[in-house]
Each structure stands twice: as C-alpha cells, then as structure tokens.
C-alpha cells in the first residue's frame, strides 16, 4: 500500500509499504478519508524529527484524520466495521501515575499516531488503538471529522482560559488553532473577541468569522488598544496561539488584573517573560496541553448541531501526493493558507 513517510529533514516521500499484518484484540484497522496537515507536521518536516524519535524514521505522517473502519479486534465494542470515525492520535500506556490518575494526556510514556507510532493517517490503511476511533454522528462530514483533534486542543485552551458568557477575549495568532479558538469562544458566549495577527490573509479570515476586531501587531500597539476598548482594564481572557515571544507578552499585558492567559502554542526554544507582570496583576497563567478524551463526542455533537462550524477554517484541499507543497504553503509566513486537508487515496 502507499504511505507518506518522513525520512529526514525536507525528505518526504510517497512509499510503497506492506499493509498492516494483523489487528490486535484492542485495535482497529481503518481506511483514512481526510487528513489535516498540521503545524506539528511542518515542525517535523523542517527539523527532521521534533516529536518523532530518530529511531522511528521513516515515519508515516498524519495525526488528525477521519476514516472508515475496515476491521475490529476481538475486544472492540465501541465501533463497528463500516462505521465512520474521527481518529485522534494519543497512545497511552495506561499504567503510569498520570494514566491511573485520569490524566492520560500527560502520560509519561505517551506516543502519537502519525508521529511516534508505526501508523499514520497519510496512508491507505492504519491500525490504531480502538479508543482513538471516535464514532462520527450523522450531520458531521468526513472533512469536519478530520478537524476534531485540533478543535479539541483549541476548546481545551479556551476552557482553561475561563471564557464564558460576556467574556472579552484576545487571541494572538490566527492560524488553525487560533481560528478554532475564535469559533469556540463565540460558542461559549464571548461578548468581544480581539485578534492579533501579522498575516493579512489570516486577519481577513478571522474578521470573516465575525470577531470584534483584528490587529496587525507590526502597525498597532495591540495591548494599548485592547485595554482602551475594555474599560481601561483589558480582556478577561487571552489565548496565546502564535508560538512567539511577543504574542505571549501582549497577552499578559492586555489581560486585566485577575484574568487568565491560556498558553496553547508550542514555543520552541527559550523565552523571556516579565514575571513581575504576572505577580502584580495576579494573573492566572495556564499551560494548555491536549484535551480530555471524554469531551470528544460532545464536540462532534456541537459540530453536527452547527454550533462549531469548523469547515470555515479550511482554505485548501489537496491530494496526498501534493503533501510537500501543502506543508510549504503552511510554512510561508506570508502565505494564504490556514487549514489544509489532504484527501486520502480511493
């Protein structure tokens, strides 16, 4: 069968690989339908192995995808052959202190389908643990189902930020997670949503979602304008989705005293922070890693109900053979793409 495998830095190939030989008792074999091209994939492509252990190369990519179930293991009861599913990537050990304590996303031995697991969604078939396969309800398209994993990450970050009815919110970075955070904040009842994003296309896309205002941080003092627009005190919550130091800094400055900053973007390398601002403003600073698996069916129901129109963030659909070009378009700082979906092989 065919699979997209990363062999090293900037070395991405469509390879012929053997089909999965067997399905374990607690596993399912699936046929991927649509796969999201993610910033994490870009990190792997640019670095030759950020999350991917070097000994795992070549690695089949694809960690957010929809699929159809082809075969189930003898112990599997949550899905049936022929059922549509959304596949999420976390592989838990189930034995460490975090898993036993119900915090599986913090598993000491965590692995990820499409990053540090033998199979991924950019292939004709994949074998995954059955708990990764979340049944897709009627009313959710295969494309929407492929966006469940990044949606869950954004929803967890917004929830960590305490966004609710009447909240005023700042989102820094209007990439896929930032755009999804906007949708979740709207669905949570936010009264005003401000966005800081230097890319003009992404600003325009954010504005099209119906936010209050988008800023170019190179041209305006975002924190000053946001504070002034919020009674001189600032927003209640900020969600940092840019992954750059200025994004985190403006969140801390623009958030009111006693407010909350939710840090969801991966910051690569050291950062300088003004910790005195955190203290003097009595800020709540939350790291936001992953999501709670129990929330995934709820999010799919909200998509089906039209309350989380995740398809609005999709800007390009490509064939799997064009995956390298898709990654390049995401990596272009001046590019016009937000969420790229790859159509699996028929």
How do the SSEs run, as a string of H and E? EEEHEEEEHEEEHHEHEHEHEHEHEHEHE
Counted by DSSP, the helix tally is 11
Main beta sheet strand tally, sense and closure: 7 strands, mixed
Please name the fourth-level CATH homologous superfamily of the largest domain.
Medium-chain alcohol dehydrogenases, catalytic domain
CATH architecture of the largest domain: Alpha-Beta Complex
Report low-confidence residues grouped into runs of 5 or more: none
| CATH topology grouping of the largest domain | Quinone Oxidoreductase, Chain A, domain 1
Domain tally: 2
Mean pLDDT: 94
Beta-strand percentage range: 25-35%
Overall 3D form? globular
From the N-terminal CA to the C-terminal CA, the straight-line distance is 12 Å
What structural class should be given to the helix and strand makeup?
alpha/beta
Based on CA atoms alone, the radius of gyration comes out at 20 Å
- Quantity of strands, as a count: 18
Helix content class: 25-40%
The level 1 CATH classification of the largest domain is Alpha Beta
How would you characterize the overall build of this protein?
α1 (39-47) packs across α11 (323-331), α4 packs across α5 (176-187) and α7 runs parallel beside α8. The mean pLDDT is 94. β12 (192-196), α6 (200-208) and β13 (213-215) form a beta-alpha-beta unit. This protein has helices spanning 39-47, 97-100, 142-145, 148-160, 176-187, 200-208, 222-229, 245-254, 275-280, 296-304, 323-331, and strands at 2-8, 11-16, 27-37, 59-60, 65-72, 84-87, 90-91, 111-112, 126-129, 133-135, 168-172, 192-196, 213-215, 235-240, 255-263, 284-287, 314-319, 339-343. By secondary structure, it is of the alpha/beta class. The protein has two domains: 2-135 and 309-343, Quinone Oxidoreductase, Chain A, domain 1; 151-287, Rossmann fold (3-Layer(aba) Sandwich). The protein starts with a strand and ends with a strand. The strands form four sheets. Strands 3, 5, 6, 9, 10, 17 and 18 form a seven-stranded mixed β-sheet that branches. The longest helix has 13 residues, at 148-160. It has eleven helices and 18 strands.
């Amino acid at each position: 069968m065919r699979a997209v495998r990363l062999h090293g830095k900037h070395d991405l190939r469509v390879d012929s690989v053997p089909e999965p030989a067997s399905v374990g008792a607690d596993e399912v074999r699936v046929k991927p339908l649509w796969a999201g091209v993610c910033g994490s994939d870009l990190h792997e492509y640019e670095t030759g192995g950020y999350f991917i252990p070097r000994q795992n190369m070549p690695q089949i990519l694809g960690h957010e995808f929809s699929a159809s179930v082809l075969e189930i293991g003898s112990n599997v009861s949550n899905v049936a052959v022929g059922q549509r599913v959304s596949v999420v990537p976390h592989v838990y050990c189930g034995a460490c202190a975090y898993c036993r304590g119900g915090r599986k996303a913090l598993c000491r031995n965590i692995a990820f389908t499409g990053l540090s697991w033998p199979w991924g969604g950019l292939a004709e078939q994949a074998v995954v643990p059955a708990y990764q396969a979340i049944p897709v309800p009627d009313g959710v398209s295969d494309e929407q189902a492929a966006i469940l994993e990044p949606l869950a990450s954004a929803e967890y970050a917004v929830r960590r930020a305490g966004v609710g009815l009447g909240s005023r919110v700042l989102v820094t970075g209007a990439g896929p997670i930032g755009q999804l955070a906007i949708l979740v904040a709207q669905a949570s009842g936010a009264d005003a949503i401000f966005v800081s994003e230097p890319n003009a296309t992404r600003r325009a896309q954010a504005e099209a979602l119906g936010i209050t205002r988008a800023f170019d941080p190179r041209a305006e003092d975002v924190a000053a304008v946001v504070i002034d627009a919020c009674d001189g005190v600032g927003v209640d919550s900020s969600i940092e989705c840019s992954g750059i130091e200025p994004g985190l800094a403006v969140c801390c400055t623009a958030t009111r005293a006693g407010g909350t900053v939710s840090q969801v973007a991966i910051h690569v390398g050291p950062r300088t922070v003004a910790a005195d601002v955190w203290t003097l403003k009595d800020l709540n600073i939350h790291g936001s890693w992953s999501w709670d698996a129990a929330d995934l069916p709820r999010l799919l129901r909200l998509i089906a109900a039209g309350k989380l129109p995740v398809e609005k963030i999709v800007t390009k659909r490509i064939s799997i053979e064009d995956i390298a070009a898709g990654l390049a378009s995401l990596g272009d700082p001046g590019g016009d793409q937000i969420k790229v979906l790859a159509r699996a092989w028929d």
